[in-house]
Structure formats: C-alpha cells, structure tokens
Amino acid sequence: MHCGDVEGTTREERTARWGNDWKSLPLNIESSASIVDRGLSFVSYLLDTHDGANVLVVSHGALVRLTLQRLIPHVDTKERLRNASLTTLLYSKGDWDCALYNCAKHIL
C-alpha cells in the first residue's frame, strides 16, 4: 500500500504537520480499490502462468486482506491478519474456496 505523503512519518509527525484529523485529508494515500485491483491483477497473472501449480504468496496485510475479501466473500475476513499467518486458497473451475484462514499455530 502506497501511503502517499504520510509514508515514512510517525503519528506525531503527521499530527504536527496536518493536525489530529490527518486521516480525513487527501494525502495521496492509495485507495482500497487500487490495492484490490493490484491484488486481483497479480492473482490473474498467477493463474495464467502457474495453472494447476501450488504457489506461495507473501505480502503485506492490506494487500492480502483486501484481495481475500474479493476472492472469498463467503469467508469472514474481518479478523486482522496475524503476522506470518497462513491462508490456503483453492481454485477450481473459476471458483475460490478457503481451506485455511489466518492460521498462526506455527508461530505460537
């Protein structure tokens, strides 16, 4: 996710520069729609180039969470993804299913 003008700043720096309501300002932060488009484009690329193969994807939470919300809307994805958690998706005949979501047993 491109964080625009706030990229690389601390909360204190943002508040000092733009005030307490900085989150409501247009600071060139990438939109959720743009993130989803990038995620779905990448998934499409994987399907085109790795048809039938198992693929491991590692990314930041926002991209993964927003993309998963579109791919598997029947799964409750509101829970914040844990760092290094595993989610397993299955693709068959144009449909996505989720065999495992946000599992972190391996790091507990």
Provide a descriptive summary of the structure in words.
- By secondary structure, this protein is an alpha+beta fold.
- The chain has a domain of 56 residues.
- 34% of the residues lie in helices and 15% in strands.
- Strand 1 and strand 2 form a beta hairpin.
- The longest helix is centred in the middle third of the chain and has 18 residues.
List strands and helices in order, with pairings:
Blueprint (H helix, E strand, L loop, with lengths): L10 H8 L13 H18 L11 H11 L14 E7 L2 E9 L5
Antiparallel strand pairs: 1-2
Helix pairs in contact: 2-3
Order of helices and strands: HHHEE
The assigned structural class equals alpha+beta
Low-pLDDT runs: none
Q: What average pLDDT do the residues reach?
A: 92
Q: What percent of the residues sit in helical stretches (DSSP H or I)?
A: 25-40%
